[in-house]
Specification:
- There is one protein chain.
- By secondary structure, the protein is mainly β.
- 8% of the residues lie in helices and 71% in strands.
- It has 1 helix and 10 strands, in the order αββββββββββ.
- The protein has one helix spanning 2-18; strands spanning 21-35, 41-57, 60-81, 84-110, 113-139, 142-147, 151-152, 164-175, 179-188, 200-212.
- Strands 1-2-3-4-5-8-9-10 form an 8-stranded antiparallel barrel.
- A hairpin with a 3-residue loop joins strand 8 and strand 9 (179-188).
- The radius of gyration is 23 Å and the shape is elongated.
Length: 213
């Protein structure tokens, strides 16, 4: 009996895999970094992904993927003293590898259109993060720029954690059986800072389009 069950399970997986569809996608990423003290910071960026859709049962699909995510944010402060103008601009950049493990359930509106909702966890791994500070100074017709070298945010002494586990979901539309449009939201469960008496969570939105082969 045990051998029969194992054989049937293997056949079911093989049959499902035969209908799996590879997809590639790209889109917008936006993340709000919400500390328990102080102001929130908003990052804009983009994502590119490679995944597949595995039909499970009556409109239910499993859609794992591997996704590269880039986020950036800039802030500037200006001051003028005795005819001199000084502007200090800081730019923060972050690169992530995300692994979303989403389940979606859809309804076929027409043979060429399917609407669906999706939900699931995402594992997020920080690849690299840094910030660069640039100071522009002008006095009359003279001006100059001083740009610092990139400073890595992740290291042995860093107070900023690399990894996160997110839970999220959203809504999407499959069109002409090859195009998938999605909008979703993820909530970061991990406190991303090591600073005492402070918490920092990422709240993210994504919107993108994928091509299903």
């Amino acid at each position: 009996m045990k051998k029969i069950i194992i054989t049937l399970a293997a056949l079911a997986v093989a049959a499902s895999s035969a209908f799996a569809q590879l997809n590639v996608g790209a889109g917008y990423s936006g993340t709000s970094m919400n500390p328990s003290k102080g102001d929130n910071s908003w990052y804009n960026g983009f994502n590119v992904s490679l995944g597949y859709n595995l039909p499970l049962w009556r409109g239910l699909e499993f859609s794992p993927a591997v996704e590269y995510n880039f986020l950036t944010s800039s802030s500037a402060v200006s001051a003028g003293i005795f005819g001199a103008s000084v502007t200090s601009k800081s730019t923060f950049n972050e690169h992530y590898l995300n692994i979303p493990l989403m389940f979606n359930y859809g309804y076929e509106i027409t043979p060429d259109a399917r609407i669906f909702v999706f939900a699931g966890p995402t594992a997020s791994f920080g690849l690299y993060a840094d910030y660069v500070n640039k100071v522009d100074t002008s006095i009359g017709s003279s001006s100059g720029t001083n740009k610092s070298d990139p400073v890595a945010l992740w290291g042995e002494d860093s107070k900023y954690k690399r990894c996160d586990i997110k839970i999220g979901g959203g809504i999407g539309l499959d069109v002409c059986r090859h195009w998938r449009i999605k909008v979703g939201y993820d909530y970061g469960l991990v406190n991303r800072t090591k600073v005492d008496n402070l918490t920092l969570h990422h709240h993210s939105i994504k919107a993108g389009i994928s091509y299903i082969f």
